[in-house]
Design brief:
Strand 17 and strand 18 form a beta hairpin. It is globular and about 70 Å long. Helix 2 crosses helix 3 and helix 8 runs parallel beside helix 9. The longest helix is centred in the N-terminal third of the chain and has 18 residues. The chain is an alpha/beta fold. It has 10 helices and 21 strands.
Length: 402
């Protein structure tokens, strides 16, 4: 695609670009830009005509342009091949992928490809474009990926704008489509940390396995032998499988979705773990915690990895505020010196604010929590130091003081 004349950005955008941030957010300056098309490569300049960067245009989005390079460039086969190869090399050198074939291959801004991710699931790849600017380049993306990593197939999973409203029905609707290659099984077996998980490349907003928790699940596997584990917001049971496979005495998995609970049982069976030896509860987590408290249940490890936002028939969960309520309700069920393991992928809640949520929950329950480990995402989810939004995952391992 041909470069246009300079596209002028305002002083605030110039300042953010000089700090290395890759996003140009719509403002009074961008509203004066000429009419452009999604996917167009434009040359950004300041109001004095000084060239700043080449960017991918997405005129209808809040982020109207994403910086691809601090030099003039074309989004062509050679440029894209170099970026993809660098991403592949980084994983090969730095990521711990022993007995794992499900991981992130390209992490958007973290690999110099803002707005684009590529995940590997066994012999398949999943491409996700988080802006319409990448849609016009999907054919080139698939061609380059086929040349570098000949997969059996490449899928795209679309990202609707209003995902919150869709979450309640998203487990049944098809958001994935095959771009090239042969179709994957309805439930595809992949490996992570030596365990088997079933993923769906077509149905649902997500595939059934959150790849950014791989290292955290491996950490959990070192802590669970002989322990009673309660997994809240269990989703498809990946953390539950990790606990049961490494000798947990009892794993209780709680989720509001019957469909996800059945999927979790299938994940147990895929690892030759008998689901009947463990507990699966379908229900709202706060209500279930109240029921378990009445039954005087006690656990050695309580784990919670809620979505940033979720809605059930009777309640609504958000990370801000909701986390402290869940922690407060769960702590009475945790044995003294037991582990409270909490996680959030909410990008707009930083580590300091997240720890405040844990503090509020502990104070509300009249308990003391000691943070012994605080993790983020693994090596295949890199982020630039100039892009704080890329450090989104918080995973805290805390001890309930006696």
């Amino acid at each position: 695609m041909e470069q246009s004349d300079m596209w002028v950005v305002g002083p605030e955008s110039v300042r953010m670009m000089e700090l290395g941030h890759p996003w140009i957010v719509a403002d009074g300056y961008t509203r004066r830009w000429p009419t452009g098309k999604p996917g167009q490569i434009v040359a950004l300049s300041d109001d004095k005509g000084r060239f700043l960067a080449s960017a991918l245009l997405d005129p209808q989005d809040r982020i109207v342009a994403r910086v691809l390079a601090r030099r003039r460039m074309q989004l062509d086969r050679a440029w894209l091949t170099a970026r993809f190869q660098a991403a592949i090399d980084l994983r090969r050198v730095h990521a711990e992928l022993g007995d794992t074939d499900a991981y992130r291959l390209v992490n958007g801004e973290g690999d110099g490809l803002p707005g684009l991710t590529v995940d590997r699931y066994g012999d398949y790849l999943m491409v996700q474009a988080y802006c319409s600017g990448w849609q016009v380049h999907l054919k080139l993306v698939t061609q380059v990926l086929q040349e570098l990593l000949p997969p059996l197939g490449i899928y795209e999973k679309s990202r609707p704008q209003k995902t919150r409203e869709l979450e309640a029905v998203s487990d049944s609707k098809r958001y994935g489509r095959l771009l090239t290659g042969i179709p994957a099984p309805h439930l595809l077996e992949v490996r992570e940390n030596g365990l088997t998980f079933l993923v769906s490349l077509e149905q649902g907003l997500n595939t059934g396995l959150f790849l950014d928790q791989r290292r955290n699940r491996r950490d959990l596997m070192t802590r669970t032998r002989g322990q009673r584990v309660l997994n809240l917001f269990a989703y498809t049971g990946a953390f539950s499988v990790a606990a049961a496979a490494t000798g947990a005495g009892l794993v209780t998995s709680v989720d509001a979705s019957p469909g996800y609970t059945d999927w979790a049982k299938a994940n147990f069976a895929a690892n030759r773990l008998n689901p009947k030896r463990h507990e699966f509860i379908v229900g709202d987590c706060l209500k279930v915690l109240a029921d378990l408290a009445r039954q005087k249940k006690v656990y050695d490890i309580i784990l919670m990895d809620p979505p940033s936002f979720s809605t059930t028939a009777k309640s609504r969960f958000t990370t801000r505020g909701g986390t402290s309520d869940i922690v407060a309700a769960a702590l009475p069920l945790l044995a003294d010196t037991g582990l409270m393991v909490t996680s959030s992928n909410h990008q707009k809640v930083d580590v300091a604010d997240y720890l405040k949520e844990l503090r509020r929950g502990a104070l509300q329950a009249g308990s003391d929590l000691q943070v012994i480990s605080l993790y983020g995402q693994p090596e295949d989810f890199p982020y630039p130091v100039t892009f704080p939004e890329g450090r989104y995952l918080k995973y805290a391992v805390c001890v309930k003081m006696a």
